[in-house]
Amino acid sequence: RKRTRTTFSSAQVYELEKKFQRCQYLSAVDRLNLAAALSMSDVQVKRWFQNRRCKERHRA
Fold it and tell me: What's the main place this protein lives (predicted)?
């Protein structure tokens, strides 16, 4: 069964990007706190950061 693609709100993306600019790798505690603040799951935040780092590497 295929999962549906998650779309994040512009507010969520703004906060995620802001955090990413400060630190590209989050600790488990920071990830949980950010997920709770943005009403996202821990895994969603983890995957977003993984994908964002990958995107950054491809730009270089």
Answer: nucleus
